[in-house]
Write a structure and sequence with these properties.
The chain has about 400 residues and is an alpha/beta fold. The chain has 2 domains: about 30-170, Enolase-like, domain 1 (2-Layer Sandwich); about 175-394, TIM Barrel. The protein is about 40% helix and about 20% strand. Strands 4-5-6-7-8-9-10-11 form an 8-stranded parallel sheet. Strand 13 and strand 14 (about 380) form a beta hairpin. The longest helix has 22 residues, at about 20-40. The chain starts with a helix and ends with a strand. The structure holds magnesium ion. The site of magnesium ion has 6 residues, from loops.
Length: about 400
């Protein structure tokens, strides 16, 4: 009740999912506006876009691919050197939209499960790629979970439709590309020597993200502070077990230039996270506790903000709805990612002008990217003018 009452007055009453409805109108309004722009000085382009709505159905194809990480990646509880992904394409009238599912093993999906799911998806039945809601509702209803696999279709469809409109999605959504935040760059748990080396390599970034939740959290922070004084974001990945000690640690971290804490305690324990949020001198974000849009309503009050990731929430459609809903609820927004190619990272970057914080470094942590896309300039996410999600295959 504490959780619900805190934000009750800030939510539009009378519907179970108000943001979804208003978002639909907003998106279709935006698409109409984009088409309207084209209908003025570029009437020919708009005519071509309309004529493409008639013809053969959408064609989906996919390809498993293994990302090679530059450094062994260690979280509280696991470490790895590769990340399996599935690269998808949706083709329509000679235009190709690109998508991606990234599947770190701890999330429960694999190339095998994604392949099995994608095999069931019959996109050929859809002749109009702009029926985004119909298409993605159909995909979502095919099976529970499979959220990364679903995201790979969502991203490819957004890329395709953006290309058909000849507009990037940040513009279709009406977002200001100048308002992108800095991205954090993640420093994984490692030996002090390697942490120092990683921190030095990250000198371009104006905010670093540090994975904590082991026994030597203070030592890790002190090691980084021996190299740089930039602000730090801390991700505990549910690693802290005692709320009193966690609060003490948060105060210590604040004194050491930490500006936010992500998922300090178990996602199964909203009360302890809410207790911390009530007392924390810096913002507390939920990550593991918030997967899809309905989770946002469950955790309201337990965190100051949420970390939205395309692979958790089935893609750009729902991520946009979550960002709007969070803002309406007075919560802060972070846009995050897994280790991914520039395909999925650039898709998430389209949303980043809505975010207070971004953690979009997944493509920078790999050595075998397959796309060029959004870039990071002096730590800031920089969107290009390319249509769709703004990527080109390498
Ligand atoms: Mg996290």
């Amino acid at each position: 009740m504490l959780i619900l009452s805190r934000f009750a007055l800030k939510i539009i009453p009378g519907t179970t999912d108000p943001m979804k409805t208003s978002r639909k109108h907003f998106i279709y309004g935006s698409i109409a506006a984009a088409a309207g722009i084209a209908a003025g000085p570029r009437l020919a382009g708009a005519t071509i876009a309309r004529s493409r709505m008639v013809g053969s159905g959408l064609k989906l194809s996919f390809e498993p691919y293994d990302l090679t990480l530059k450094h062994v990646f260690t979280l509280a509880g696991s470490s790895r050197k590769t990340t399996p992904v599935m690269l998808t394409r949706i083709e329509y009238d000679g235009i190709t939209g690109y998508g991606e599912a990234s599947m770190p093993p701890y999330l429960g999906e694999s190339q095998e499960t994604a392949g099995k799911f994608l095999d069931q998806v019959k996109l050929g039945q859809f002749k109009n790629p702009f029926l985004i809601e119909d298409i993605l509702d159909y995909v979502d209803a095919l099976a529970p979970e499979n959220r990364a696999a679903k995201a790979s279709i969502d991203i490819a469809l957004h890329d395709l439709t953006g290309k058909l409109l000849n507009q990037p999605w940040y513009r279709i959504w009406g977002l200001n590309p100048e308002k992108t935040p800095d991205t954090t760059f993640t420093i994984g748990i490692d030996t002090p020597e390697v942490i120092r080396q990683k921190t030095q390599e990250a000198s371009e970034f104006r905010i670093l993200k540090v994975k904590l939740g082991s026994d030597n959290d203070r030592e890790i922070i002190e090691t980084i502070r021996s190299v740089t004084q930039v602000p730090l974001a801390v991700d505990v990945n549910q690693g802290w077990k005692d709320k009193e000690k966690a609060l003490e640690m948060i105060h210590w971290l604040k004194d050491h230039g930490v500006v936010l804490v992500e998922q300090p305690m178990s996602k199964e324990d909203p009360d302890s996270n809410a207790w911390l949020t009530d007392r924390s001198p810096i913002p507390v974000f939920g990550d593991e506790a918030v997967q899809r849009l309905p989770d946002l309503f469950k955790v309201r009050g337990a965190y100051h903000g949420i970390n939205i990731k395309l692979m958790k929430c089935t893609g750009m459609r729902e991520a946009f709805a979550m960002a709007q809903a969070a803002r309406s609820a007075g919560m802060r927004v972070m846009i995050g990612c897994m280790t991914e190619t520039s395909c999925a990272v650039s898709a998430a970057a389209q949303l980043s002008p809505m975010a207070d914080f971004a953690d979009l470094d997944g493509n920078l942590l790999i050595s075998n990217d397959r796309f060029s896309g959004m870039t990071v300039k002096k730590g800031k996410i920089t969107l290009n003018d390319l249509p769709g999600i703004g990527v080109k295959p390498l």
